[in-house]
TrEMBL record:
It is found in: Membrane. It is a multi-pass membrane protein. It comes from Candidatus Caccalectryoclostridium excrementigallinarum. Its main location: membrane. The lineage of its organism: Bacteria, Bacillati, Bacillota, Clostridia, Christensenellales. The chain crosses the membrane at residues 17-35, 40-58, 84-105, 117-136, 142-161, 173-199, 219-235, 242-260, 266-283, 290-309, 372-393, 405-422, 428-445. GO terms for molecular function: ligase activity. This is O-antigen ligase family protein. PANTHER family: TEICHURONIC ACID BIOSYNTHESIS PROTEIN TUAE (PTHR37422:SF23). GO terms for cellular component: membrane.
Length: 476
């Protein structure tokens, strides 16, 4: 066999692998192992090599979605354990892969279907000009880094998927599998942290217990689980064999959220689960097996509540012990309004240092803990306009085709957007915003590949009739 034939065969094998669920599971296992090792430099080097190989061997960039989604989950520490130059060396393979990929593979044509492109670019521009003419204290370098993190990085990944993505597998099944396995990974890490705390004699039911996974604190990882849970139900509607495993996984993820002691996460997770049950019931309303499993699950819930009622009440009581107080957020919201009126056009800027609580700047970004107030306070009217355009484009993309993927993505967004009203998720570049941007890129690719649209306003009967299809490969 010639070298060219060997390389072609190798590419085919890698191509088949990265379009399978086995690849997604492989990324999750690698991430968990690297996370337990607590060596960030080694983790980055391993991930960089894997990404470099994929970028060189495969034109399709859709397989980058599970990789980018789960790569941040290797972080198990709060401080950088090595010099900056060592991290620069570690990412050389992925940088080389990007250069070779761009040089060797043809790009997709960007047409009118890329309806999120201009709004995302406008959002970056609004981030860049935020804080102009403001008298509020700012750190220009921190502001620039935040623009890269919140605006530029997610946009580049969106563009990369949009330019090189191919229809080599069922988009819905592939992205849903990514979210389901990401939820498994996050839950496994959370249970590992819980087990470590219990081994040390810590009462994880106490409100003073704050679980930290490294890459995500007690607000971030419940947000991830909230975004992943609806895709468990995506598989429930797809095949009856997934009903029981999906219910068990969802229950485990709910336990992880319960012990995060986040009131907002708990409230919006419950709302998401209600929406999930409604959606999957619409899809399976004529399936007798679904109703049998539904009845068994309801009975199991009653039994669980009966045996663990006291513990559940104790944990929830600890979580809501301060009732519905704001945890200082009300002062942050007042601060945001003050900064808006000081500089209505551009706000206080992405490098704003803040006044109320210096704890909110430990991450390098003064968080005002609300999508609305963060936009108002740091970006002003220009940011409000850019954000509105971004949201209109986002949900036009979701509702332009009511596929099962779009439906359950929207259910996930109910929790994400709702929780972000009192949390920082919208301005968290990795993993939250990046995941949303990459999903939108794949939805645009799917919309371009499928002729005709299912417009907003279809009946529940038509929604329920949306076919799931089967997982199908197509050789390019």
């Amino acid at each position: 066999m010639s070298a060219a034939a060997l390389w072609r065969r190798t590419r085919e094998v890698i191509d088949d692998f990265v379009h399978s669920r086995l690849y997604i599971a492989f990324i999750a296992v690698v991430a968990y192992v690297l996370w337990t090792g607590e060596n960030l430099l080694a983790a980055m080097a391993v991930l960089s090599v894997i990404a470099g190989i994929i970028l060189i061997a495969v034109r399709d960039t859709v397989p980058l979605v599970p990789f980018v989604v789960m790569a941040p989950c290797v972080v198990h520490i709060s401080e950088m354990p090595a010099e900056l130059w060592q991290f620069a060396l570690a990412i050389i393979p992925v940088l080389a892969g990007i250069v070779i990929h761009v040089a060797c593979y043809r790009r997709n044509k960007i047409d009118r279907g890329a309806i999120n492109l201009l709004p995302m670019a406008a959002f970056i521009l609004a981030l860049l000009v935020s804080g102009a003419f403001s008298s509020a204290p700012q750190d220009d370098m921190m502001g620039f880094v935040n623009v890269l993190y919140v605006g530029v990085l997610p946009f580049i990944l969106y563009l990369f998927v949009r330019l090189y993505g191919e229809e080599k597998c069922r988009y819905g099944d592939y992205l849903a599998a990514t979210m389901v396995i990401w939820g498994m990974l996050t839950a496994a890490q959370a249970f590992t942290v819980f087990a470590g705390a219990l081994a040390e004699g810590v009462d994880i039911g106490s409100n003073s217990y704050v679980p930290r996974l490294g890459w995500g604190n007690s607000n971030v990882y419940p947000t991830v689980l909230m975004m992943c849970m609806p895709f468990n139900f995506y598989y429930m509607r797809k095949n009856a064999k997934w009903l029981l495993p999906a219910i068990v996984l969802t229950a485990a993820e709910f336990v992880c959220t319960l012990y995060a002691h986040s009131r907002g996460a708990m409230i919006f997770t419950i709302l998401v689960l209600i929406a999930c049950v409604i959606a999957v019931t619409v899809y399976n309303r004529k399936n007798p097996l679904y109703w049998a499993v539904f009845a068994a699950a309801a009975l199991g819930l009653v039994v669980t509540l009966t045996f663990f009622w006291d513990r559940i009440v104790e944990v929830l009581g600890n979580t809501f012990s301060d009732k519905m107080q704001s945890s200082g957020r009300d002062y942050l919201y007042i601060e945001a309004v003050d900064r808006f009126f000081e500089n209505p056009l551009f706000g206080a800027g992405m490098g704003y240092l803040g006044f109320v609580n210096k704890l909110h700047i430990e991450s390098g970004f003064y968080q005002l803990h609300s999508t609305v107030f963060q936009t108002i306070g740091t970006m002003g009217l220009v940011g409000i306009a850019a954000m509105l355009w971004l949201y209109v484009a986002r949900y036009y993309t979701v509702f332009s085709r009511l596929t099962p993927l779009n439906v359950f993505f929207f259910v996930a967004m109910i929790g994400f957007e709702g929780y972000s009203l009192v949390n920082t998720s919208t301005f968290t570049g990795l993993p939250c915003l990046t995941v949303i941007y990459m999903f939108l890129a794949v939805m645009e690719l799917d919309r371009s590949a499928q002729k005709g649209c299912i417009l907003l306003g279809r009946t529940l009967k038509e929604l329920a009739a949306c076919g799931g299809g089967r997982w199908k490969k197509k050789r390019a």
